[in-house]
Design goal:
single chain, 183 residues, alpha+beta, 2 domains, 6 helices, 4 strands, 34% helix, 14% strand
Length: 183
């Protein structure tokens, strides 16, 4: 046996196998208790929610944890690997092509799709719970929202499209002024 193994055993400096705890046992039990409360109330959390809670807690304490993997979804590595030269070249070409274009004719827009599909996901709940409940609306509807603005600083009215057979009055009331609604 190596002398360092004997030393660790004699001094009681042994760590548990596997990943080491980032939180104390009391803190872990406290978080587990409130995850179970949320599940009982119909709002169970998933593993990503748990990681966000722990990350916020550790950030408040000022403890950095590098092993906590919270990754953004939808990021394509080929898009993230664009070189600075490519970006510089793009803006040089853009500058040439926009020489005689009025700033009111340069428009930037973004479309966001909001889906109301609960789908199936794994949740955290108390052991032995047969039928966990999630309180939510399951209409499986989609809403597309387009926002646009000009280079002159003007914000164009939002454009909202509902994927539905009917466009109800309650959907179009009390929204931003001059918003266009369609189905």
């Amino acid at each position: 046996m190596h002398p360092s193994v004997l030393y660790r055993h004699s001094k009681g400096l042994l760590k548990q196998q596997g990943g080491q705890r980032a939180l104390s046992l009391e803190t872990e039990n406290y978080i587990i208790e409130y995850i179970n409360v949320c599940a009982e109330w119909g709002y169970p959390m998933d593993s990503l929610d748990l990681r966000y809670i722990i990350k916020m807690y550790l950030d408040q304490l000022g403890l950095p944890i590098n092993d906590l993997k919270i990754t953004s979804r939808g990021l394509i590595l080929s898009r993230a690997a664009v070189s600075p030269e490519t970006i510089t070249s793009f803006f040089e070409e853009l500058e040439k092509s926009l020489v005689d274009v009025p700033v009111t004719n340069i428009i930037n827009y973004d479309e966001t799709n909001l889906a109301d599909d609960p789908g199936r996901r794994k949740i955290l709940t108390k052991r032995g719970t047969k039928y966990p409940e999630r309180i939510m609306n399951h209409s499986k509807s989609n809403v597309s929202i387009m926002m646009a603005g000009t280079a002159a600083g003007d914000l164009l009215p939002p454009y909202v499209v509902y994927k539905a057979l009917n466009l109800y009055d309650t959907w179009v009331s009390r929204g931003p002024r001059e918003t266009e609604y369609f189905r």
